[in-house]
């Protein structure tokens, strides 16, 4: 037994759908306000405008990225120059504060090196 034997409404609705489908005709839907169909020229103009706007946007983004890349390069170069200057100053400071250099400057000022150093023992007088 088929299901159509149990429910003849299925068969009727199936035939109704077939007949209505054959009658359906596809047509362009008019615009809601003017009742006119949009032309292909206006659609092409719309697509062209979107394309041009996106190209201009990409050009602006690439220009900004390139400018930032140049700025980043300049800042890295300045940082390297400052690092080199800092290293030169630290080397100069190390050279001026070396024991030999300090002894030489003390001699130029008239100081004499102690041959018999004396140390104070502050705990000697206390019990």
Strands, helices and their partners?
Elements: H1 3-6, H2 8-23, H3 40-96, H4 99-108
Question: Which terms would index this structure?
Answer:
127 residues; mainly alpha; 4 helices; 69% helix
Tell me, briefly, the overall form: elongated
Tell me the Rg in angstroms. Answer: 48 Å
User: What string gives the helices and strands in order?
Assistant: HHHH
* Low-confidence runs of at least 5 consecutive residues: none
Main beta sheet: none
Indicate the percent of residues in helices: 55-70%
Mean of the pLDDT scores? 82
Quaternary form: single chain
Indicate the proportion of strand residues.
Answer: under 5%
Number of strands: 0
> Terminal Cα separation, in Å?
125 Å
Q: Total number of helical segments?
A: 4
Structural class by sheet pairing and helices? mainly alpha
Give a verbal description of the structure:
This protein has 127 residues and is mostly helical. The chain contains 4 helices and no strands. It starts with a helix and ends in a 19-residue tail after the last helix. The mean pLDDT is 82.
């Amino acid at each position: 037994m088929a299901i159509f034997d149990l429910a003849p409404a299925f068969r009727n609705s199936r035939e109704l759908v077939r007949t209505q489908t054959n009658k359906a005709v596809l047509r362009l839907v008019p615009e809601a306000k003017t009742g006119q169909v949009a032309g292909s020229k206006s659609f092409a103009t719309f697509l062209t405008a979107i394309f041009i706007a996106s190209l201009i946007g990409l050009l602006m983004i690439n220009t900004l990225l390139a400018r930032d890349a140049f700025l980043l390069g300049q800042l890295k170069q300045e940082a390297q120059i400052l690092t080199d200057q800092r290293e030169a100053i630290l080397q100069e400071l190390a050279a001026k504060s070396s024991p030999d250099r300090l002894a030489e400057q003390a001699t130029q000022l008239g100081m004499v090196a102690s041959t018999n150093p004396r140390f104070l023992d502050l705990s000697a007088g206390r019990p």
